[in-house]
């Protein structure tokens, strides 16, 4: 190998400078062969560590994978029943994988109901639920609101006509039925909101219950009268369903 | 295949696996995120989050320029792993959707100061400390805090950002924007300290930060009234037992 | 730097093929000439890398000091917008990682590649142009950060213009590295070559992908943070750790004259490292607003990282076995071995601190930055210092002037980094524990940090002092002021126990 073939402008020509040949060779001459690697099998203890690490890592992924969902942010929701039953609080749930957001829970209904009430009912019954004396009856604390949720739903669906006594005062007006405008979820939302807000926290109403009620009165077209409402009992509804909570 | 080919194919494979798992797969999930909104009879309302604009957007640039992110995070962690919610930094943990329009989001990695995810919310850090009433952190408070942090929060290593303010001679009446300074940091008589537009924009951005709105994937704790009422059996939320 | 050194003297050409302690064979003279030629060809590029890297090291030490002082004295230089903490800190990290770490890493990598492939560098100016582009791009980038124009993504603060310039520079350097491999005359690639080749391929892939995704494509929301975290972690492992391990796998067996303990272990270690480290990035965003599976995947990969850690550590330690006394003699071994130990400690720490139960305490505290320091300083930088102590004499033709200067450098860096890291870990733990203590109010928690920050400045002062000493020593070497060639500059005379 001829050193004069080395490239680059700042190369050192080891043949021309006796100083350099000594120095560079001295540093390099004392060098040993470049390192190599022996072929040695892996010690057992090391294989054990590696195997342990792989199992541990895989188990961690298996336990906390969160369903590989983009909506699960809490890793404990992966297999909660199995692993941490006591740690997962319903309030911190988050949506479970693959399911549409829980829009039918009482909180969602309540929020939706508030908006629906403001848009549809508040014009007559007032945002406060106090109604207008002599014209529109109040909703606060009346038996129509706190009582049988099915009757409340029926009123919202079909409306009321004629004289009606609420809270000891007589009103004579016509409330149009909203059954064609509102779907079951919205009816449930309004009922839940009214019962929560004006009915001293009466139980929420589910969309299922409103669907059931709508079905029961599907053939009815006219509004309710006070007499009918007074007589309203679960017996009147042919397909009696299990009552909601309690 | 030769040894070299094996080596290079292996190297590329390791890169491809990494890129797929940590970049492409999450992009497929998170890239499809949409703001939460309510649609009623074709009308869209109640949209969250919304894009920042105007003064908040300008302030965002100042926030980035001054590197606030190196001391302040903008992420509230789950109640199971930290006390972020208890410290009043937010009503709930933050999730990917909260940052939909943040380019980039200032998540931060170090907390040398409090988390600022919801610093614009009235409820932010509204705790009573040592019997004193919670501080109302309005624009004036933030401006004063930027100019002279020690005047408001005592001993702190929050740097003073005096270069975002200008000191000028009072001509005629004192400006309504001038800071009410006292003690050491007060300007000489006849002078006043007014915030530059940059400082105002920065505070505008801070006050726009509020990520407490409910999202289906991260709810804040429900109102007491609702949890007290017994939910009907069919209406159980999707959360597991 | 081995026992053979005694047989050579500065004035005489060493004897040809004398039988020495190991059987070096009859072609030893030829090998030496070949090495001398290779070293001659790499001299320009490698010294350019080293010299500019050292300038960046000094600059980053200064920026780091300013940032550290600001943490306990916020009024310090607070009227200069350019030097506010939020700008100095990223400028410091950028100057340190891209200036010092990357440049010195590339210098050592080019030298190692040429040596291990047994080929001379054909066009040294290619590397020098590459280094110049890298340096100019980086300088523009750091100035932009100080001017407040940096990109607001943590870990990717360099502006697009400077990243493209640096990328162009790297392409020249990386191409040079790959060309060396392509025309290698050593058929069996040694372990170090795997890591070097990995680094030369991974770096441009990751660098280009992340920068394109951030600056060109329209990634929304947290995806930008995801890409940022992936980028920083990939750089730490695939770039810096790869380069550091390549150097450690070379210098330890080379100086103590022993083959590496096991090829099989090295192979398992390398491939598990290659595939797992690319998956660990999201531990940086643990607890953040990311889907749970993403963070879980990274934690799981972090746990499995125990495999490469165990393999590399066992391989290096068993290779060193019985030769630990070399730490007292050889500066190279002392620095490299310190780095190798730091690598093992930091990696094991990284595994356990990635677990959610531990991460929830130390996330967001100084603990994470202590880990970063362990990786980039106690491991990478120390190994690179060792490499520079080995390589520079072969390039400039004289030995280091003073062993006490090397000693001051070592103890300054070692004590300084140990002090710094343990202090920050304590600070992080203390702060993290009070973060999850419902009794502690927030201003009290901040006071906890205040106790530690002055100590941090002290440690950085010590480290910066060591850097100044080393930079001076290196400058002397560039000016050829040193011991005459022949005897390596050792801490203690070697081989007295062999007589």
Give me the secondary-structure topology.
The complex is a heterotrimer of chains A (246), B (241) and C (499).
Chain A: H1 18-29, H2 44-63, H3 80-83, H4 106-125, H5 143-146, H6 149-158, E1 159-166, E2 169-176, H7 184-197, H8 207-216, H9 226-231
Antiparallel strand pairs in A: 1-2
Helix pairs in contact in A: 4-7, 6-8, 7-8
Chain B: H1 3-30, E1 36-40, E2 43-48, H2 54-65, H3 139-147, H4 149-153, E3 165-169, E4 191-195, H5 197-208, H6 224-228
Antiparallel strand pairs in B: 1-2, 3-4
Helix pairs in contact in B: 2-5, 3-5
Chain C: H1 28-72, H2 85-117, H3 124-146, H4 160-182, H5 191-215, H6 222-256, H7 263-277, H8 292-304, H9 306-320, H10 326-329, H11 331-354, H12 356-362, H13 366-396, H14 403-435, H15 442-478
Helix pairs in contact in C: 1-2, 1-3, 1-13, 1-15, 2-3, 2-4, 2-6, 2-13, 3-4, 4-5, 5-6, 5-7, 6-11, 6-13, 7-9, 8-11, 9-11, 11-13, 11-14, 13-14, 14-15
Short description:
The complex is a heterotrimer of chains A (246), B (241) and C (499). With 246 residues, chain A is mainly α.
Describe this structure as you would to a colleague:
The complex is a heterotrimer of chains A (246), B (241) and C (499). With 246 residues, chain A is mostly helical. Helices cover 41% and strands 7% of the residues of chain A. Chain A has helices spanning 18-29, 44-63, 80-83, 106-125, 143-146, 149-158, 184-197, 207-216, 226-231, and strands at 159-166, 169-176. In chain A, strands 1-2 form a two-stranded antiparallel sheet. In chain A, helix 4 (106-125) packs across helix 7 and helix 6 (149-158) crosses helix 8 (207-216). Chain B is built from 6 helices and 4 strands; from the N terminus they run αββαααββαα. The longest helix of chain B is centred in the first third of the chain and has 28 residues, at 3-30. Chain C has 499 residues and is mainly α. The radius of gyration of chain C is 23 Å and the shape is globular. Chains in contact: A-B, A-C, B-C.
